[in-house]
Each structure stands twice: as C-alpha cells, then as structure tokens.
Amino acid sequence: MKLLVTGGAGFIGSAVVRQAVGEGHAVINLDALTYAACLENVASVANDPLYSFEQVDIRDAAAVDECIARNAPDAIMHLAAESHVDRSIDGPGVFIETNVMGTYNLLQSARALWERKGRDETFRFHHISTDEVFGSLPADPDVQFTEDTPYDPRSPYSASKASSDHLVRAWHETYGLPIVLTNCSNNYGPYHFPEKLIPVIILNALAGKPLPIYGDGSNVRDWLYVEDHADALLCVLKNGQVGRSYNIGGENERSNLQLVRTLCEILDRLSPRSDNASYAELITFVADRPGHDARYAIDPTRIRTELGWRPSVTVEEGLERTVRWYLDNEAWWQALQNREGVGQRLGTKA
Ligand SMILES: NC(=O)c1ccc[n+]([C@@H]2O[C@H](COP(=O)([O-])OP(=O)(O)OC[C@H]3O[C@@H](n4cnc5c(N)ncnc54)[C@H](O)[C@@H]3O)[C@@H](O)[C@H]2O)c1
C-alpha cells in the first residue's frame, strides 16, 4: 500500500511511519515540522527507498491539495495535530486552525483524489483521534468509554479534536468518503516530546529537579505503549469496517501519582541517585490544570472482538522500556531542551 501519513515527524506518527515501512508499505510523511516535530524520530527509515518526506502545513489548502494529488496515495492516515492540552489553554487559536481547518483541507483533497480514482472502495481516510473527546469519567471502574459514548470535550484541545471527528464522519455520510476513525487513550514510549508527563518526570528526575504532579495526582489515565498504538492503527486501517470507529486502549488504568511512583521505582533500579535516596522524594504537588478531566478509561471490546487486537505490553513493561530508552538516548532529548516552552509550566493562563 502507498500510505500518506500526516504528522509523521511527531511522537505517534513517527512510530506509525517506522512500523509501516518495516511492513513494506511505501510511506509519504507529510509534516509541517512544528515545535513538536523531530525528523530524528524517523532516522531509522530515512534512507529507505519506501520512505519520502514532504514539508507541508495542513492549514495551507493549496499545498495539501498539490501534495495529495501528486502522490495519489491508497490511504491517508491523519495524525498531524496540535496535541498538548496545556498549550491549548494558553493559545487555542492554532488548535482550531490545525486540528479543525487542517482536517477540513485534508478531507477536501482526499475526496477529490478519491473521486478521480473512480470512488475506489479500497481507498481509506483514517482519522486518528483521542479518547479525550468523550470528556471525564466517574471513578466507578465499570464505567468506560465505548464507541457510543456521547461526545463531551472539555478542553480547547479535545474540543478541536471532537470537531475534526465530526467533520470526518460528515464526509463519509454526505459524500461517501471511505473513512475509519480511532479514538485512543494516553500514549507513552520512545520519542515522546519532553513536555508531556512521562518524559518530564524521567528527565526532571535525572536532573535532580522536582517531579511536578498536577493537583493531588488522583487523575486516572489508561496508558498505551506507542508501538502498540501504531500496531493497532495499521490493524484498523487494513481490517476496520468503513464508516466505523474503534476505541484503542492499553487496559492499564493508573492514577498520575501511581504512574510517577512506578517511574521512580524503575529509575531507582536503573539509575540510582548518588546518595541512594529514592527519586520519589522529588515528587512535588503543583496547582492543578484548569478543567482537568478526572478519569479516562477505554472499553476495548470492539477492537478486540471484531479485529482480534489487544496491546502487547503491560504498563510496567512499557515504562521500563521507556526509561531505558531515555537513558540510552540522551542526545535526542538534549537537542529538544531549547525548544520554545520546554521545561516551563504551561496552561495556567485560565
Ligand atoms: N499523545 C497521545 O497520547 C495521543 C492519544 C490519542 C490520540 N492522539 C492523537 O494522535 C495524533 C498524534 O499525536 P502525537 O502525540 O504524536 O502529537 P505530536 O505533537 O507529537 O506530533 C504532531 C505532529 O504533527 C505535526 N503538525 C502539527 N501541526 C501541523 C500542521 N499544521 N501541518 C502539518 N503538520 C503539523 C507536528 O509537526 C508534529 O510532527 C494527534 O492527532 C493526537 O490528537 C494522541
């Protein structure tokens, strides 16, 4: 298959690019190279004849149209987005421009290509979204997000992603564009940009800095290893039913405090502090995020029963791999330390 992957220089997109090239697909990586991008993430496939890169901003409709028409992919996997909730609180405008208008531009160009291909039924527009569109869950472990949970986004980020999901469904219902949609829980793993919780904790710990936890640390997330997510996305692209959405989860619910304590235990083993004190002593509770959703949890029944997919690693295994990766790849994260906003507390302007 010839795949056009948007956002392929980001955290999840690069995992999709690496895996897709590894499976023998031709991959065009379309990315604007914003502050969150790093072409180093795809260095392992950069010289592969199956791989090519196009620097395109999805807010630029003409550039998107030209790129899609010229490459004429069999499928588009759309991951490009502004993705950080804290940044969406401080500056929501670019989230609307990229996540909503950018998705609209892609849908229009994909639709034109699909029409030129004679409305080819094998064509796919795969929209990659988040479980945050469903809002916040109560603590009751029997209540989880299903594909039928009503949308209830509560941050500018999740509202912009929810808007894009609605556009994608509308282009299927109205124009017949063959789409699949996935809503995934929180990802973690190698190449995670150092503004998100897990890399912040690992890198602050190694620097002997406080480990910031928003509020009381009781917020619960369902953690998925990024390479499992990439695997699930390729599975849905190949086997998912047209017009259908699939929730993807790690089946690994943890509170932020539990997660950080686990990271500290791993770091204590793999990179002990000189005085042998635990990294957990550096845990510091800081002001909560405005509108911080209490709990996200995915009911994975559909993807498991219809497509036979389930995650391959537990959160403990995945976190250990992740810590080892950051310990072994200091040059990667050191190079990102000077990017705008990295190392600062964002999202407090509300
Ligand atoms: N990170 C998570 O836990 C998570 C969970 C579920 C869903 N998602 C979704 O997965 C996708 C990828 O998330 P991520 O964590 O890899 O994000 P990321 O921020 O690491 O990467 C986003 C990529 O998109 C590119 N991009 C941003 N604006 C662009 C524009 N205007 N034009 C072209 N490219 C642009 C960036 O340069 C970057 O390479 C997003 O759509 C996000 O909503 C993320």
From TrEMBL:
- What are the protein's GO molecular function terms? dTDP-glucose 4,6-dehydratase activity
Q: Which UniProt keywords apply?
A: Lyase, NAD
Q: Which organism is it from?
A: Lutimaribacter marinistellae
What enzyme class is recorded for this protein? lyase
Pfam families with a match to the protein in the record = GDP_Man_Dehyd
Q: What is this protein called?
A: dTDP-glucose 4,6-dehydratase
Catalysed reactions listed for this entry: dTDP-alpha-D-glucose = dTDP-4-dehydro-6-deoxy-alpha-D-glucose + H2O
Family that this chain belongs to? Belongs to the NAD(P)-dependent epimerase/dehydratase family. dTDP-glucose dehydratase subfamily.
Per the UniProt record, the lineage of the source organism begins with:
Bacteria, Pseudomonadati, Pseudomonadota, Alphaproteobacteria, Rhodobacterales
* Needed cofactors: NAD(+)
NCBIfam families named among the record's database cross-references: dTDP_gluc_dehyt
